[in-house]
Design goal:
two-stranded antiparallel ribbon; 37% helix; 43 residues; single chain; 2 helices; alpha+beta
Length: 43
């Protein structure tokens, strides 16, 4: 898989917000800047 293919998959990932709604990252990116943070739980 190339970097471009990996990037495209990441952009189109579907995420669940804390209010329970689902959104595609590509939709959010089109509207405004997007900061994506991955947080690992250690407990």
């Amino acid at each position: 898989m190339t970097v471009a293919e990996t990037y495209q998959k990441a952009v189109d990932a579907e995420v669940k917000f804390s209010d329970g709604t689902d959104h595609r990252l590509s939709e959010l990116w089109k509207k405004r800047l997007l900061l994506l943070v991955f947080l690992r739980h250690f407990g």
